[in-house]
């Protein structure tokens, strides 16, 4: 017998952040595919696609990474001139409070 399926409504903590996370990725891909049909200059398409991919990287690193999973990373130069990478991650309790 078929049982009626329950519709589960999920309550996401940051739906706007998730939307922009996916939107920037999709915009670079869609621009490359769609504009290659209309614009014959590969250089213009390539430059704009790289700029959109750079914006996507910035959003993922600085916005989505911090808000969705609590990740931060950066590079520091110590007194000897060596490059040192710093990584931070919030625990689950801090993410649920924020």
Automatic annotation (TrEMBL):
Membrane topology field: Multi-pass membrane protein
Entry's Gene Ontology BP terms: protein secretion; vesicle-mediated transport
Keyword Coiled coil: no
Localization (cell): Golgi apparatus membrane; Membrane
Superkingdom: Eukaryota
Membrane found in the keyword field: yes
Entry keyword set: Golgi apparatus, Membrane, Transmembrane, Transmembrane helix
InterPro entries to which the protein is assigned, alphabetical: TVP23-like
GO CC list: Golgi membrane
Chain segments annotated as transmembrane: 12-35, 41-60
Primary site of residence: Golgi
Function: Golgi membrane protein involved in vesicular trafficking.
Family stated for the protein in its record: Belongs to the TVP23 family.
Alphabetized PANTHER family for the sequence: GOLGI APPARATUS MEMBRANE PROTEIN TVP23 (PTHR13019:SF7)
Protein name: Golgi apparatus membrane protein TVP23
Organism of origin: Aegilops tauschii subsp. strangulata (Goatgrass)
């Amino acid at each position: 017998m078929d049982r009626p399926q329950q519709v589960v409504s999920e309550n996401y903590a940051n739906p706007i952040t998730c939307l922009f996370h996916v939107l920037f990725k999709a915009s670079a891909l869609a621009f490359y595919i769609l504009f290659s049909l209309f614009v014959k200059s590969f250089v213009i398409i390539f430059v704009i696609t790289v700029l959109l991919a750079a914006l996507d990287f910035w959003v993922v690193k600085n916005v989505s990474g911090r808000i969705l999973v609590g990740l931060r990373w950066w590079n520091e130069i110590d007194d000897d001139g060596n490059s040192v990478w710093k990584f931070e991650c919030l625990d689950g309790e801090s993410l649920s409070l924020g």
